[in-house]
Amino acid sequence: MPFPRVRTRFHSVYGQGGLMEQEWIEISDSSTTTIMKPLSMDLQNKREKLKDLALHLVEDIRPEMKEDIYDPTYQDEVGPAPKLEYVWRNIILMALLHLEALYGITLVPGCKAYTWLWAFLCYVVSILGITAGAHRLWSHRTYKARLPLRLFLIIANSMAFQNDVYEWTRDHRVHHKFTETHADPHNSRRGFFFCHVGWLLVRKHPAVREKGGLLDMSDLKAEKLVMFQRRYYKPSVLLMCFILPTLVPWYCWGETFQHSLYVAAFLRYAAVLNMIWLVNSVAHLYGYRPYDKNIEARETVLISLATLGEGFHNYHHTFPYDYSASEYRWSLNFTTFFIDCMAAIGLAYDLKKVPKASILARIKRTGDGSYKSG
Ligand SMILES: [Zn+2]
Ligand SMILES: [Zn+2]
């Protein structure tokens, strides 16, 4: 008679639930024969990913914030993708903005020189509101800022009009944590158009809503300035993104209202949007991965020029807690120069920089071999 078999649950030492599916092993009830199924490739793979996650957490140099650390153990659920739900209001507004910006381009040659300078200044301030503000300060907590600087950054952030800091941060933390899955708001696996702008034109994937809702956002909830901006976001955008950029050239040096509105407001706003979106699209699709070849984020250095330092994206996803978002400091990175200036006058402090030895160890461990020192 064959031995009856007993099925026993295998309990993972790493925990249960979401992180690890339970596996079966089969043990014969004979005292002399024990048949154990070898660990499946799937389980070994998951173990590797858990080890990877543990390493990511250990490498982090910020004890207080872990919500933006990549979780390689998360995988999309198998099954058909939910139907796309278009948000027609956003589609129409975005189309109109881009038409206005195109018209603005035709007006550029007829602008006064001061208007060009003013539009450029508004561009730089808007970008800093995203890079030094929503991104490096509020999403990643890579440095600390005193009130005058936070005030400047929140005003600059309203000028950039890319959702309020609270919402931007939630989308961005979930982008880092679950990058290239359906829980990533601008999942680059869904194609160039989707990760560039399409994600803003459709309803969020249920996984984004679910995982985004679980993030710890208590640091932002406790920050009065951030919650104040959230409360008065619409009037602040109207004032900073459209009214102020238009009124200054018109009132101060007699520019026509039309040139002021279409160049300093619409064209400048559309340019800021597209440059920041390039980080989500191009910097997740094209370029080398010298720091971590297992993620899609890439080094696309030219984007750093347009975004004032956000194109070192493979580095940034590997070390999201580095205030420079790059291995280097001022090279193609005006945002780092700006933060350093703020630190020099005492408005920024506790700047987090990954030690060179950790970077080199990481390059050796997970880089794609394209790293060139010096
Ligand atoms: Zn980031
Ligand atoms: Zn990214």
Q: What do you see in this structure?
A:
The structure is a single chain. With 374 residues, the chain is mostly helical. The protein folds into two domains: 1-41, no CATH class; 88-366, no CATH class. The protein is 53% helix and 4% strand. It contains 15 helices and four strands. It has helices spanning 41-59, 88-107, 113-139, 147-160, 165-177, 192-196, 206-214, 218-221, 224-231, 233-252, 257-280, 301-307, 313-318, 334-344, 356-366; strands at 5-10, 23-28, 144-145, 348-349. The strands form two sheets. Strands 1-2 form a two-stranded antiparallel sheet. Strands 3-4 form a two-stranded antiparallel sheet. The longest helix has 27 residues, at 113-139. The termini are far apart. The structure holds zinc ion (2 copies). One zinc ion (ZN) binds at residues 135, 139-140, 172, 176, 316, 320. One zinc ion is lined by residues 135, 139-140, 172, 176, 316, 320.
Short description:
With 374 residues, this protein is mostly helical.
Properties at a glance:
4% strand; 15 helices; two-stranded antiparallel sheet; 374 residues; mainly alpha; disordered N terminus; binds zinc ion; globular; EC 1.14.19.1
